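Page 42, continued from yesterday. The earlier attempt failed because a stray header line got pasted into the input along with the sequence. Redoing it now with the clean sequence only.
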Amino acid sequence: MKSSHILITGGVRSGKSRHALDLALQRSGPRYFLATAQPFDTEMRERIAAHRAEREDRFFTVEEPLFLALALGAIPPEAGVVVIDCVTLWVNNLLYRFAENLPAMRREIDAFADQLQRVPFPVILVTNETGLGIMPDNALVRRFADELGGANQRLARLCDEVLLMVCGIPQVLQKGLPV
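This time it went through. Structure tokens are written below.
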């Protein structure tokens, strides 16, 4: 039986992560949190610490900035739900790691999409919507927007529900299996 997956998108500080946690806490069984952030500086370390404190001991946390397919595949099949926060940072990490080898980066995204279709538990994906702003003024940011937009579209097609967060309010974009 296929698991029901949810993709939550929206702008920065729109309430995506909070809503993902709220949805996950409604599920029974062991809850997992797959974190993609890396503590590159003091501010990011503080953000990561705040997110850990917010989850308390209600989630098993797995930190994996690059190889999400492997991390997702290693989660026990009896998991009640997995929250992945966030696809945006993951794609950023991949682009940084594979800057000169986009096919390798896209293989990682393919591997994750394939694994997502195989897991026996529901997954809640958090990502940023990059397509609502102005055209970035440099090639690297445009490449990032292109890659994230492509990943978001692909993952949304694999999800049963897609939500857009606006000012902390979820807007249902897709309910039920995608067409």
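Notes: The beta strands are 6-10, 31-35, 60-63, 81-85, 123-126, 161-166, 169-175.
Reminder to self: strip header lines before submitting.
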